[in-house]
Amino acid sequence: MKGWIDRVLTSGYAFSEDKRYSQGVFHDKKAILSFTTGSQESMFSANGINGDMNVTLWPLQNGILHYCGFQVLAPQIFWAPSHVPSELRGTMLEGWRTRLQGLLGEEPLSFTPLDCFDKEKGFQLKPEVCEKHATKEFGLAVGIHLGKPLPPNNQMKAGV
């Protein structure tokens, strides 16, 4: 996957200094990550050995897909399919088939818009954005957390 990303999502084609994030080249396109894991879901939690899946997804979904402007849909993750009975694998595939039928109508994940950052100050959040979120329980996103707890499922579910 990394080789494809490095060859296809290149500077000048997929992004530029003026065309990135919410103003990116692919702002009218949707993207989704679909993959299997070799571990059960609990192992990808805040207390799990593999760490929080939201943290794992942030560099891919924000740092690559959203950076190029894509509207990023919630990922399709099949947790440890090689470790579950074949009937459950069939259920997983049927769920994916159903999701694919309505995929284009899905709401994308939320990312902080580019205009919330001050370019002149090294793309730091604008003071008014920080003030607006000062009393909120969670940060804006996994990677933009304002020193607060990470928003739960921010990279896993739309509308969070």
Description:
With 160 residues, this protein is of the alpha/beta class. It has a domain at 2-108: Flavodoxin domain (Rossmann fold), CATH 3.40.50. The protein is built from four helices and six strands. It has helices at residues 2-8, 53-66, 86-101, 127-132, and strands at residues 30-31, 34-36, 71-72, 76-78, 117-118, 124-125. Strands 1-3 form a two-stranded parallel sheet. A two-stranded parallel sheet has the order 2-4. The mean pLDDT is 95.
Top keywords for this entry?
160 residues; alpha/beta; Rossmann fold; two-stranded parallel sheet; 6 strands; globular
Short description, anyone?
Helices cover 27% and strands 9% of the residues. The protein is α/β, with parallel strands linked by helices.
Rg, rounded, reads 17 Å
**Main sheet strand line-up:** 1-3
- Oligomer, anyone? single chain
Total E-strand runs: 6
* Total of DSSP H or I helical runs spanning 4+ residues: 4
Q: What summary fits the major beta sheet?
A: 2 strands, parallel
Cα distance spanning the termini: 27 Å
Strand content: 5-15%
Helix content: 25-40%
Low-confidence stretches: none
